[in-house]
């Protein structure tokens, strides 16, 4: 009878003890089943040299793939035993702790907040190698080819696509659909490329999501349109476009849609027509090819960093080790369960505002990440190294169960439920407004496809980024973290729309309305009229095109900054407001150095009083004299009891107010 190694426990979870998180702030649900064993670094070296096979494997793996500091600076290694279809993971920690820990799950958010002195790796066996049955504690994975465009890598992508199309009942994307106005005919492997006017033709096509960056990509203009419809030289394509053609051909998809080539870039009329169809372009594509880590069109889809994740054979029994990367862990695409909300782990492409709707509208996305391929559909998320997929309702960015608060299901199903669409839209806006736009005038255009999808499912009316049926509640959006670094987009959008602010915003109607009828607020504001042109053809520089006329209770106030709070003066009445209750749209309240005269307009009244903070516009504006014109500058929340105790309601008057 063999003796279990006292150092590594032969990677048998029964040798581990249950983990107790030393930091209660970082306790997560998964940590309840987190097991570990602690080993000193020197002990590992001794047992490895004395013949423990598992210790020898761990010792060899750490030396092969983690080019860190010398051994005496590495007192510890964490080894996370795998789940089914996942590799074993190990982390080398130095300069902080002082032992080696072996864990049973690769999913603790606490241990992924590692100090900078950390090197990580994977241990695995290949799925079809029967010799590795001797090592059940090691786990299984795939070798990642150095080139993302290799036959092995693209064959795997084709397998994912075929599996989704043939077996995923939840994936709503059509296989054959009406083609967009124009597509690139990619032909066969050696066939010519040209821009095809589809004229209602049906077929399969892929879309490309890419970052334009500082280098302007190849485009179609009025001058080049005729030539593009005849032929486009493959060599004329920038590297990312060339790679997208290679992928499309390998997957057996005959057509490819690329925005810069399929929309005539110097034709305003064509751009407006095609932007209206953007929702359908991505929804009807069989696949979206996502150039996640390419900063512009010259970089290509395959990265030299893939070599980091390529496996090294470390013994004669078919055990491999590879350098682990964390690029997928916070994206919602990984085999691990990390929260997809850490901006430091975002890909280059995912920081772009346009890409949010491209990713969410597409039925399937093939991600070309720096270290490996990843797959996303409404049924599964996959990564190249892992054998088994994850359900899409576990931590995927697309999965509303995590990101948008729906218990189960994809975007289409969630948006079809009228009771949740406001919450869904708020989550979308919170994410969207953190992303970057090259042109501020695109703040509404870049999300119009998602808005169109919501409108289709709910029969609601979309106006300047908000929903008519949610007025006036939805006027209470606010900046998530006001800063003087943010700015206004007054030139393009009315002040009552979140699009007028260049800042992350929060939009939480359920918090304002209350969770039950007894805590619900009562509306104090009535919308009289909204004059707002269609967003694709609007001109908000003409202020009358973004005019909202309302009727409600308004009062003149003076806001004076105090230490960590504000003093509000209304006539002879004065009271203080915490900074967390006054949300200025742009100006950082902590830097407000002088008193400001403004107006508050009541929106809702419950246990809290909710109001808009307004600034009166120049009286010289050429409008009807019977109305007063204001610009929104923030939101104010107050305890409603203050109105009674101070008799402040006497300061309010019923007013016809025009918001611009």
Description of the molecule:
With 660 residues, the protein is an alpha+beta fold. The protein has 3 domains: 9-141, no CATH class; 155-307 and 334-409, no CATH class; 513-659, no CATH class. Helices cover 18% and strands 26% of the residues. The strands form 7 sheets. Strands 1, 2, 3, 4, 5, 6, 7, 15 and 16 form a 9-stranded mixed β-sheet that branches. A 9-stranded mixed β-sheet has the order 10-9-13-12-14-17-18-19-20, sandwiched between helices. A 5-stranded mixed beta barrel has the order 29-33-34-35-36. Helix 1 (41-49) crosses helix 2 (53-65) and helix 8 crosses helix 9. The longest helix has 17 residues, at 151-167. It is flat, with a radius of gyration of 29 Å. The model is unreliable at 22-32, 95-116, 335-345, 399-410, 415-420, 514-518 and 535-543 (pLDDT under 50).
Instruction: Describe the main β-sheet briefly.
Output: 9 strands, mixed
Q: What ranges have pLDDT less than 50 throughout 5 or more consecutive residues? A: 22-32, 95-116, 335-345, 399-410, 415-420, 514-518, 535-543
How many E-type strands?
36
Structural class: alpha+beta
Round the Cα radius of gyration to an integer and report it.
29 Å
Report strand %. Answer: 25-35%
Termini Cα gap:
83 Å
